[in-house]
Amino acid sequence: MQWLDRLGPRPGLLILGVGAWGLVGAGLVIQEIDRLNPCSLCIFQRLLYLLLGGLALLGAALPRGHKAWSLGIAGIALAGFLTALYQTLMQAFPSIIDECSYTDPGPIERLVDWLGMQYPPLFMATGFCGSKEWEFLGLSMANWSLACFAAFGVLALWLAGGLTGVGGRKSA
């Protein structure tokens, strides 16, 4: 991964920001074309991608504190990874893990409901978390989101200098 050794904080943060917002755009296009019904966990992950992208683009604009920006991004990526992991487990083991819509609404569902009332085109949750309405190469959208959040988290930690042994990059 020599290209990572040459990647500085600003381009790295730009890649993270554009990548996260690009995933949101792609998700909206796929949702519209395939008439998908996103669940509250899907919408929450969408929100985390928007936050991650916004923080990354702010970090690219103000790269002086790139380590702090990168650590914040890694924290959001971890939250997204855990959310996508929970949804992946929910889809894999529907008899063991309660469907999000069948229980009392938790903080995530309440936040998503509120956001859906504020801006429905982006945040309205209408589906079930355990359903796999869309798959690509045998993986559901939750599976892909799990991989993307993991990649964003690794890149953010690398940019923060926390993975110097992996990429060989020296902390600046």
Keyphrases for this structure?
172 residues; disordered C terminus; Bromodomain-like; 8 helices; mainly alpha; 69% helix
Q: Total strand count, please?
A: 2
Strand order of the largest sheet: 1-2
- For this structure, what is the CATH homologous superfamily? DsbB-like
CATH class: Mainly Alpha
Q: How large is the count of helical segments?
A: 8
Give the C-alpha Rg: 17 Å
Instruction: Give the % helix.
Output: 55-70%
Structure classification: mainly alpha
Q: How far from one another are the termini?
A: 18 Å
**Strand-residue proportion:** under 5%
Judging from the principal axes of the Cα atoms, what is the shape?
globular
Helix and strand layout, with pairings?
Elements: H1 2-6, H2 9-33, H3 40-61, H4 66-92, H5 107-118, H6 120-123, E1 135-136, E2 139-140, H7 141-160, H8 164-167
Antiparallel strand pairs: 1-2
Helix pairs in contact: 2-3, 2-7, 3-4, 3-5, 4-7
Task: Offer a concise description of the structure.
The chain is an all-alpha fold and 172 residues long.
